[in-house]
Amino acid sequence: MIRRTNWDPMYKHSLPFLVCLLACSGCRPNDAADSSQYPARPIKLVVPFGAGGGTDTYARIFKKAIDENDLLSQPLVIINRDGAGATIGSRFVKNAAPDGYTLLLLHDAILTAQSSGVVNYGPDAFEPIAATGEVGMVISVTEDSPYHTLAELMQGAADQPGEVKFAANMGALTHFAGLQLEHEHPGAEFRYIQSGGGANRFADLTGAHVDVTGFSLEEFVRFRAGGLRGLAYFGEQRTPAADDVPTALEQGYDVVATNTFYWWAPKGTPMECRQIFGEVLQKAIQTESVQAAMSQIYCDPFFITGPELQERIAASAERFNRVPQRSLIELPNYPLLVVTAIAVVGLLWVGQTQWK
Known about the structure:
Blueprint: H1 9-25, E1 43-47, H2 54-68, E2 76-80, H3 87-94, E3 102-106, H4 109-115, E4 126-135, E5 137-142, H5 150-159, E6 165-168, H6 173-184, E7 191-194, H7 198-206, E8 212-216, H8 217-223, E9 228-233, E10 259-266, H9 271-285, H10 288-296, H11 306-321, E11 329-330, H12 334-355
Parallel strand pairs: 1-2, 1-3, 6-7, 6-8, 7-11
Antiparallel strand pairs: 3-10, 4-10, 5-8, 5-9
Helix pairs in contact: 2-10
């Protein structure tokens, strides 16, 4: 039996108003997105790499300055969502509510991942807030390598196409640096090996699994004592941190590969929220602590926003899109192979004992 409920006339007449109120409340992503209240709660900054890495360190430099100088009325909370070449973290922010409370710190990997086809989205899926510095790259070999100059390396890649092994991170700047060099030296062809982050590439290089790779300037300085030889610095001019390493431009190769740090918000985030957070970044980068920390990690600090930022992103995207794409080769997963071999031997042993 269905029981009917008699509505109180007062509630009956107020029902349309309640429905309208609920509908209107869903029109805005979040009431706190109002610039007069922003930020009204902690802001999550997603770093799409593991804790302790270069980008994570960079984020924490700014967080420290923001906290110490009370530049935000609410906490800035760093969330590490690493994996898949930074695409897990970037996708998380892309799909987050555009209310100003979930932001992303990601460098040029947001451009190269799209250019290489790793993901089908790029800068257009976000609202850029600011760019706050860049780091250079050094093409490196081991000290006992037969290649002493960039020209020798490229000639070797041309004389034996596909034989010179280049450790890269799929779709990242190291990969594009190699592709740009190939483009500048007709006939040269590296054999690209998927290797991962800087520490992995250093292990593969010094372990003789590969012949050449690229490191950020900070990584090169840190790893250099372990047996590295720098062949070329991919900046506009030589860097004091490695002034004995000539630029690619000096050696006749029109290749510049610097990694810019960008701050992003989900598409549709109110401009007022972006401006407020951008002003916080601008104040933070002017502090002595940030300036000193940037020097320690060999990062050239600057602050760019507005039309100049849009132009920089567009120019970088165009440069990456001009680079012809080629596939990479994965290094064997030796631990997995060992585990698989043990499992197969175990199954064979079990099978033999059952037949006895």
